User: What shape does this take?
Amino acid sequence: MRFGINRRDFLRWSALAAAAPVFEVKLPRGIDFTLQNSPTPQKYLIETMPGGVALFDYNGDGLLDIFLVNGGRLRSPMPTPENFDRRDPRYWNRLYRQNRDGSFTDVTEAAGLANAGNGNYGMGVAVGDYDNDGRPDLYVTSYGKNILYHNNGDGTFTDVTEKAGVAGGGWSVSAGFFDYDNDGRLDLFVTRYMEWDTKHSKICGGDWHTYCPPAEFPATTNILYHNRGDGTFEDVSVRAGIAAKKGRALGVAFADYDEDGYPDIFVSNDGIEQYLYHNNGNGTFTESALESGAALTADGKPLSGMGVVFQDYDNDGRPDVLVTVLPRELYGLYHNDGDGLFSYRTLESGLGVLTSGSSGWGVGLEDFDNDGWKDLFVAQSHVLDNVQQIDASLRYKEVPLLAMNHHGHFERVESGVTTALAARGAAFGDINNDGRMDVIVTSLGAPPVVLLNRENSGNHWLSIKLQGKRSNRDGYGARVRVNGQTRFATSAGSYLCANDKRVHFGLGAAEKAEVEILWPSGTKQVLADVRANQFLEVREPEHS
Amino acid sequence: MTLFLWLTLQSISPEGAQHMQAGVEAHKQGRLDVAIAEFRKATESDPTAAQAFLDLGETYAEMHDYAAATAALKRALELNPDLDAAHLELGYALLSEGYAAEAIPHLERVHAIEALGIAQIETGQYRDAIANLNAALLKRPGNPDLVYYLGRASGLLSKNAIDTLLGAYPDSARAHQAMGENYFVLRQMPQAEKEYREALRLRPDIPGLHLELGLVYAGASQWNRAEQEFRAETKLQPGNAEAAYRLGTALLQEGNAQSAHKELERADELKPAMPETLYSLGKAAALDGDAAGAEKAWRKLVEIEKESSLAAQAHFGLAGLYRKQGKAGEAQHEMHEFQRLEGKITPLRDDSRPN
Assistant: This one.
């Protein structure tokens, strides 16, 4: 027992040290995308913030396709009116269709997604079937105007932004679809970072010449769009109480944290309090992070919140919150204690030692080894491209963090990524349908990195695709319980990204599963003796 | 002054006395140019009148013309070496012109310890300077200029000692420790680590070295390595409260709440009522499930420090504690105190006070 290490710990750590990396890093054939952020001497803040990626099956063939958001071209200095050359193919967003052999084909142009608007510098993406036609639609956020692409079901998309009334404006970042009023139609939440434009940009850091911190610019409001059900949305930000607070939002995630049957919203803010919008169930929200204990660190300090995930990491059935931040802070883990209260658990969970020197963006809690505990993956890189000159102990490019969850305690393992990245977005899904969760990471000025899960524990798994009837077709907001684990169905979370909407569970050695689904409609559905290792499609009963 | 002036006027020529009187009058009225002209005429009409040169020098000094003042004051002392007022003025004038070494004998003669201390800094007599400035501070406690010069003298004395150490014993453990400290201040952590490591290799028993090296690791958030160094320091110096505190905070960062709690309790016993220790102790106790211990530590802290940022943090911690205990009123009060100290809200108006 010397040094507090017992024999069992030693053996476990030895086993981990000897274990093969979890992921195989590869760029699948056919993906030729480079994230064009176009860094300039002007240090325009937008150039260090993109870009999103979505994992979704746009054509319904059962294979995940990849949609990548591009930045745009920046000049030094930018002329007015701003033109980001988005008609130039180098700056297009790209849709890659997955083929049966695991390769991808660029279908951007054929799908009608080539034109992202010259005035829009791309940021993120949200995925949801807003019109319940069974086909996932795309919402692309930008500095400029956002675009809603309706999926026509024939391999093409149509820009319906104007009709839908969801262009937003200003600087939008992460967005997500969710059904806040449980009317069976997906609504849309859009985070906005700050009031900033290239004309009023600044350079900070004196001789170091760096990007400015967010406090240099005025805060702004987020947007909540209510889905009217006729293909149009109504901006209800003011009426719903969302616009009552300005912030510097970068990430958003949804879950019903107080089990009142209505999805709540967690917004990660940069450099100020985090926001937890409690859904009052009457179309309004009350921001209650401070009262709930999820606004600040244990020391009462604000976080430079960037990415966020809202899932249950310790299998107590309640969704917890994890916020990624800059170094010298620690990734904020807020444990849901019940009764609407959270406690800051970063230190106890082991994240203190794992995260203090790193900057986190995209983040996911996924069971990568199918042992029944959600592990942590974070896309990491500092926001300042010259940070190492300023502080030799920090790095601009970092390898991602992969930490396995041992009953609520996280321990770092080899991810398999050995080259440091200027990583931003991270989306999670089973890309090759092998029952193991994979990751795709975006990186500034570089191609995306696809991490195919090669973990070989032999643990069992279950992947559930929800199909709502009275609830929204995607089943977003459903609480799914499998063998004592809980997931909240959503494709939102992380940073700028949209995840595979299928709900994945690791089952460990269990070959059968008990599945309980609490649909947003309030219907509870129980499935017993479900066979492991399958992709299960579950339809919501017509009647409760 | 009147008697002194009358006696002076008796010893010089009538014409000189007339100019002296006119000079004194003009000086009283603040017409310094006129006073200088009159005092100059007095020295011309009686070139042996030491007082006339003294008055002329003083008036030049008042006008910050130290070169002219120096010349006049030197002449006054040639005529009367016992003129203490001239020594004092000349000492200040020379010091103002940067001739510290030349100023010192004059300042010593009249025991002008404030100016003497400053002059001694300039001539590298740091120990004497510190003694004189300390004595001067006893007479004028808290004088910012004196405090500044005392700090400067102490710093230079320290630097001098370190320079001597580095020059004479560059390979000694202490030299490496000193270099480590320099690098640490300059935030050049890799170099600081290297120097401390070398110092430890040469003399692993030097108290404080592990602590300093631990701080390098803590600054880089390398908590495991910081813990090892702090632990080594606590073994060397079990009575060192800072080492115990640092070890406790490192353990806390590593999420080892129980050990952190114990170590911080020990730090608190070794040196009670330290706000930093109390804050971390409260945090460790809370993480360790000892709500009463956390409350006790934070309560004690806010009694000691009412308005600091640490007090704000303690109020924030107490708010969380009370919220979990279902004490909504107390939680709200603590949160209010936190927000008040953070400057987010204005203090509550006390309606019970009469207007």
Notes: The two ends of chain B are 54 Å apart (CA to CA).
